[in-house]
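Re: the 385-residue chain
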Amino acid sequence: MAVVLRVAVLTALVLVVESPWWIPQCDHEQYLDSGGHCCKRCPAGTHVAESCIKPHTSGICAPCHEGIDYTAHANGFQKCLPCDECKFGFEMVKSCTVKSNTECRCKAGYYCPPSCEECVRCKTKCPEGQIPVQNCNATTDMKCGSPTETKDATSLHIVITFVVVFVVVFIIGFGAFALIRWKSTRNGFCQSDEETSPQPWWEHCNKKKPGPNGASSESLLVNQIEKPGPVSENKLPGNTDRSDLAAGSTNEEPLLGSTESTAASLQPNGSRQQPVVVVAKNYDFKVLDEIYLDSRKMVPLHYWKDLMRKSGLEDNYMEEIERDHPSQTNEQRYQMLKTLQNRYGIKDALLKLLNGIWALKLTNIYENLTNELKSKGIITLETED
């Protein structure tokens, strides 16, 4: 009987320790220390020397060492991150400070493709029958091509440049023409011959046509300006008819970029709205944990960091995980998901992950993941009206 009682007590303790609700929920400006307290983060350039004694207060922060280690953001690290050293073929662009890591780039004559580990020496000459079409730079090797291709590309560039210049000159000329014409006819009458030089396209403005009783049309226009007629109270120049406004209708078309059209354009797949995800009360924790961690296999690597940021994981934690597991991308993603789970609990971590996938418009991944969760009885989906 005593053995059974011990097993029951140990099982209860394990469930309490592993239960997500037992983990305190710290906001983004705090971190969870080893004692289970939410402490305020230390500022960039420092690390945690001693954690806080009272929850939601600051502990003791110690500075990083210039040129040796750093922290780029507010953090809860027990030690600063070590500065990188420029590898072979690289040169230092910016030295390491207490708030930023070392910045390196390839030396002249070397290049480093995306995600490379070290710089590669550039080609110095092209194969026989080809000529350089693009010089080597920090990220791309020298490119070669046939002389015919190079000549065709040059001719195409010349044609494109000519077309662009022609279009720009035409737009500028047309704009100047419209501006001069507007100035010559502003206020509803043409300027006199003494004020402007007559041009072929506005000669009709300079002709003084006789009006009634022998008065010129110009003098009549001036009299009209000096003696304005009555203006209707409901009709104001440049404004919408007030009577129309009172009736609740206008003749104006709706502006582009209105609230409705903007909201529709931000939704993936047109006007589609994100379903509301409801986690079942009696879900299977092990099944949910397995599906949650397996989600790292669904999301392409180049989306991963953006997804983690949108799910609530700061860059500091990602950098620390990458340093602990260099060149192990699968393990890095696994540890990032576990960090989210430890911070928010499995249910909230799942919801944050799904919201991040939707925000990145990875619709197929979102549907595959939610379909699997629904098939296991973990969640249900409700579409907002």
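Residues 147-185 form the longest helix (39 residues).
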